[in-house]
Amino acid sequence: MTVEFEYWWLLVLPLFFTLGWIAARVDIKQLLSESTTLPAAYFKGLNFLISDQHDKAVEAFSEAVQANTDSLELHFALGSLFRRTGETDRAINMHLNLLEKKELTPNQKSAVKAELAQDYLKAGLFDRAEELFKGLDDTRYRQPALRALLEIYVREREWIQAIDTATELERLSGVPFRREIAQYYCELAMNEIIAQNHDAARKQLAFALDANKNCVRANVLLGDLETTEGAHQAAITHWKRIEFQQPEYLGLVAGKMLKSYRAMDSLNEGLVQLNTYLETYKLPSLMSVLYEATLAEEGAEKAARLARNELIRQPSLTTLDQLLQARAMADDVNNQDIQLMQQTVRNAIGNRAAYHCNQCGFRAKQYHWQCPACNAWESLPAEPSEAVSREMTIKKNNAK
Fold first, then answer.
1. Mean pLDDT of residues grouped by 10 in the chain (400 residues)?
2. Which of these, 51, 191, 249, 377, has the minimum number of CB atoms within 10 Å of its CB?
3. Taking Cα atoms as reference points, which of 301, 258, 298 lies closest to residue 277?
4. Domain assignments of the chain as residue spans, ordered by start
5. pLDDT value for 274
6. Cα(307)–Cα(325) distance, rounded to whole angstroms?
């Protein structure tokens, strides 16, 4: 079988090469013409940005804007730099001038308003930012505007608006906001608890669990509500449900559970329950609560035995300190060696136990459902951990 060669291809191939060469020349010429229209200050500003010299970058981009006053992109770049360097007043003035003095198309006006809204948000002028973000109904800006509005409502603690906004954002983006929405309902419940409207608080907490069945905080608060009314068994029932949501949070309610068991004259049952949790989940916070209760109720000998068994199973300086304390109390003597060892252990432990936000690294001595630094929800671990400085973390990451 032979393949016949088509001679007419010899005429077509050079034509294709010629057309490709012409197209490439046109693209190169267009690229060169576009780059020459940009002022030199623009490229200087880029170099300063790359080298993190923001002050010099602001000067360069300001010069570029003066040289090319018709370029909205240059204005937006300069406005972003103003916000980054904290000069929000300059960004606001620049964008207001664009709206007042330039002839803009509807799309361009929307773009400028979006930038101005970001300026107001950065400056903390939430009312003005909210008004502008609400007016950005253009599809291009709808989701970013909703995210900004959600940030405003959370900062202003306007929880009903936050719920509505998060629900709409969830619908548009497909990104779940169930955890956040449940926390907003918990915040509404807290307001009702403070106002002593317990039935209204229970209703909000039911909404929280509807939004997120794993919302531990809702069951914590429901248990707290029951204890204020003396319904300790109902409180324990709510707190026990945490095991089937996120068991690592049991340490947050362990002390409360023991108080309720004690109020019902069922402390031994409570100690057995916490022992079961400790054997199953091995949480340090459970061990601390159980040790203190055992020491107070059953004596130093049993507390020492508990600490020793836990130390064998899970070595810890904190548990070692507990063992030494219980031994010193059980022996009922002024044993200087034990005191010296205990002091050494406590010096080693120091003040390191803390909750660390997994979003921003914020360190807190007490648990927060919302990080006080970055406002993320449930970003602090349920158990405190050893403090690691931010500088050490950065060094380790750089070493990798």
1. 48 50 44 44 42 50 50 72 83 86 84 93 95 90 95 97 98 96 98 97 98 98 97 98 97 96 96 94 92 88 87 84 80 67 71 84 92 94 66 40
2. 51
3. 258
4. 176-213, 251-344, 351-390
5. 95
6. 10
Place of tokens 């090319």: 68
* Phi, psi angle pair for 282, to nearest 5°: 55, 50
**According to the CATH classification, is domain 351-390 in 2.130.10?**
no
Q: Where are the alpha helices (DSSP H) in the chain?
A: 9-37, 40-50, 54-67, 72-84, 88-101, 106-123, 126-135, 139-155, 159-173, 178-194, 198-211, 216-228, 232-240, 254-263, 267-281, 284-298, 300-313, 317-331, 336-349, 390-399
Which 8-state DSSP code applies to residue 192? H
* Residue 248 DSSP one-character state: G
Distance, CA of 331 to CA of 325 (rounded, Å): 10
Q: Are 64 and 42 in contact (CB under 8 A)?
A: yes
Residues near 371 by Cβ (< 8 Å), separated by ≥ 6? 357, 359, 360, 362, 377, 379, 380
Asked whether the whole model's pTM tops 0.70, one would answer yes
DSSP 8-state code for residue 4? P
299 phi/psi in degrees, rounded to 5: 100, 165
Q: What is the pLDDT of residues 353-393, one digit of tens each?
A: 789 999 999 999 899 999 999 999 999 999 987 544 343 34
In three-state secondary structure terms, 18 is helix
146 close to 176: Cβ distance less than 8 angstroms: no
Per residue in 65-92, pLDDT tens? 554 555 677 767 777 777 888 889 888 9
Q: Rounded to whole angstroms, what are the CA distances from 10 to 3, 7, 19, 55, 237? A: 16, 6, 15, 61, 87
